[in-house]
Amino acid sequence: MRGTDRGEATATEAQNDETAARGPAAECPRCGSKLPAGAKECAECGSRGWFTTSRQTTVVLSLILLCAQFLLTGFLNRKFEGREREMARQWYDRGVAELAAGRAEAALNPLRTALVYSRNNPQYELRLGEALVAGEHYGEAKTYLLTLLERQPGSSELNLELARLAAREGDVSEAIHYYEASLYGVWESNGEQQRRAARRELIAYLSDHGQKAEALAHTMSYAANLPPDAGLHIQAGELFLAEQNYDHAEEQFREALALAPHNAAALAGAGRAALAKGEYADAERFLNRANRANPSDGSLAEPLALARALVSLDPSAPGLTDTESQRRAIHAYQLAALRLDTCMGSVESGANSPLRVLAEREKPIDMKLRRKRGPPNDPPRSTIVEFALDAEQAVTAACGSGSVEDRALTILAVHRSGGGQ
């Protein structure tokens, strides 16, 4: 018995020695349980390993499929939106082409269709408003444009269209209100260029409706804010010419010439302004240069001929000798007397008509000049010139314009009385 116990103890000690030699027992990497010798995982974890791996794979695949679906949906959505933009642009271009060709009615449907594909597009909405105005759908146009203006209260483009609409309807005060609102609003693009164009439109509208002072005030504002651009200064000069403000007109044309010395339009404008101011030598010089710069411009022939006639006829031109001044005065008298006789022969004139009165004034002048005794015995130069200019004005009123020289004498008469050309 003691031998058996001693044997068991010896076996246990040997087993413990072997275990100690192998080191501590291994643990399951998943659940931490003690593993039997030689085992890599416990029996329980091993039995459910396939299920765990399968679940992880399913989660990963599901995520991949969700990402793919998201990307595909985004791609298809972008493709659809791109197609809608393309369709909107095609219909819009068609409508704009019809509008540019003057077919406002035909432009309405394409522009409305464009807005179906591109809702609330400000550019498309504005063009539809323009088409409604051009097509004379005034009631619908006004309602539509005012609705848009509520969404975009500072839109210069919308205010400009409302101004044009009011102008078409004959509402002058409302047209001016919207024109001015467009000047001080916000433009979608090319703000300064658009603002200048709108101001020119307003200036023309004011002039057409007799509001000369307001037109001049806006022209002054227009000219005061110009960049160094010859073309813009020429436009300003033309606006001043139209308003008969010749000093400012000439100033603007000279500004243009400082930037472009050989610009034919600037030279012609400066010549016309100088002619209207009575600066005949300057007018001839500018118009000669304009004619050389652009010989094909037929509109220069008349003012150039007139400037040359004025330079050669004016008896009061600075720097003339007394002899030359007297010669010019007598030549002017001869032209006026001949024209007076011709006009009286073609129209009926009573005893107290202006033409008859002038004929009586002519007789003593004619008698003295016919004696040919020379300047000391000629009538006073002022008397000769005054008769010639009065006669040219009266004959022009009764019988219309005559030759270039006759028109030149009429201009001299107007300038003598303090008027412009």
Describe it:
The radius of gyration is 48 Å and the shape is elongated. Among the domains are: 226-313, Alpha Horseshoe (Serine Threonine Protein Phosphatase 5, Tetratricopeptide repeat), CATH 1.25.40; 318-421, no CATH class. It has helices spanning 2-22, 43-100, 104-117, 122-134, 138-151, 156-169, 172-183, 191-208, 212-224, 230-242, 246-259, 264-277, 280-293, 301-313, 322-346, 354-370, 381-399, 404-416. With 421 residues, the protein is mainly alpha-helical. It contains 18 helices and no strands. The longest helix has 58 residues, at 43-100.
Present the secondary structure layout.
Blueprint: H1 2-22, H2 43-100, H3 104-117, H4 122-134, H5 138-151, H6 156-169, H7 172-183, H8 191-208, H9 212-224, H10 230-242, H11 246-259, H12 264-277, H13 280-293, H14 301-313, H15 322-346, H16 354-370, H17 381-399, H18 404-416
Poorly predicted tracts of residues:
none
- Annotation, overall tally of beta strands: 0
Radius of gyration from the alpha-carbon trace, in angstroms:
48 Å
Helical residue percent? over 70%
Largest sheet: none
Kindly estimate the percentage of residues that lie in beta strands according to DSSP. Answer: under 5%
Sequence of secondary-structure elements: HHHHHHHHHHHHHHHHHH
> How would you describe the shape?
elongated
Give the distance, in angstroms, between the N- and C-terminal Cα atoms: 156 Å
Structural class: mainly alpha
Q: DSSP helix count?
A: 18
Mean pLDDT: 84
